[in-house]
Amino acid sequence: MKEQPQGFFLPDLCQVKAVLFLVLVAELLAIVLALDNSGVRYFDWQGFALKSLFCQWVFLASAACLCQLRPCLSRLPLAWGAACSYLLIVGLAALLALLGQWLMAGGVLGGAWLPDGDQLLKTTLIAAVLAGIALRYFYLAQQLQQRQQAELQARIQALQSRIRPHFLFNSMNIIASLIAVKPQAAERAVEDLSALFRASLSDSTAATTLGDEIELCRSYARIEKNRLAERLQLQWQLDEVPMSLAMPSLVLQPLLENAIYHGIQNLAAGGTVTVAASYAQGQLTVTISNPFNTERAHTHGNKIALPNIEHRLKALFGEQASLLSEQTDNRYTVRLSYPVSLEDEL
Question: Engineered SS bond to 73: which of 19, 81, 203, 232, CB 3.0-4.6 Å?
Fold first, then answer.
């Protein structure tokens, strides 16, 4: 993904999607101007064609200039960057309007040709109003995006700081009981608990991989295995899935925690948690499934893990990302999916 200058309100107008949007807006503006001149009944198609050509000319020329100058404008103070962008658009519109009049007059240098001052002023004023509206819209959109990112970051931090006190106390008690009889197991439990705390306190924007997240899940499962013993069984189905695929931090471990806490812990006989992954056509899918007892299900909890993970996935990977859950035949399944390639980095 192309890195964009941070803190500047103008979008990247070099992208194809942005150019197509500008073409559509220019065409709509040409329709409005043509209707204003001739009305619906006597619609002037020739006049509409000329207005359409001019609007596309101004919009695409402005987009091309702002695309090339965006890195320089982003280094200026906000007021200066906005003013330069505004004057650039208005100046281009006036220059192209003057050039259009010259071409319509025959395009001959010299002679008695004089520009139509009224038409030139009208075009410049329309461009000035529309440029002001567009820049204001881009600024407000950027402010909204920043607020959404701040809210998302707060959600991520809330998820990362979410370590249940009971899990911590149980882990410490398990480690204390293992020190005398199984010192090596106690040492491994300390290392696993340290890995969980390290992930919880790390930068939420740091790049990580599927392999890192799977290893974090294994660390968590080993701690819970010391507590639940044979009641907890895990089945890993990860064959032929590249472990180097990019994945946001702390995505799988909360899902595995929910499967054990809400599923296995409530079953006297325990059960098997299945963690399966597949990768096909650039789409990574991870499924976590566990047995579930509806009569003894936990009804308390802050219930922020699944919504946070879904928000993070959609923020990073767009609408193609999903987090679905379903309960069938006393088994609860969560399916996480998002588009990613081996070359992608978060």
Answer: 81
Distance CA 91, CA 127 (A): 9
Sheet holding 283-291, edge to edge: 232-237, 271-280, 283-291, 331-339, 322-328
Please give the average per-residue pLDDT across 141-145, as a whole number: 82
Shortest CA distance to 337 belongs to which of 310, 315, 304, 307?
Answer: 310
The domain ranges of the chain are: 16-103+113-153, 161-339
pLDDT of residue 207: 67
Read off the tokens for 141: 């959109």
Classify domain 161-339 by CATH number. Answer: 3.30.565.10
Task: Supply the pLDDT for residue 179.
Answer: 84
pLDDT at res. 301: 46
pLDDT, the chain, mean: 80
Inter-residue contact 334 to 255 (CB < 8 Å):
yes
pLDDT at 224 over 90: no
Quick one: angle between helices 210-228 and 165-181, nearest 10? 70
Least Cα distance to 251 among 289, 291, 216, 303 occurs for: 216
Distance CA 265, CA 149 (A): 36
At residue 239, φ and ψ (nearest 5 deg) are -65, 145
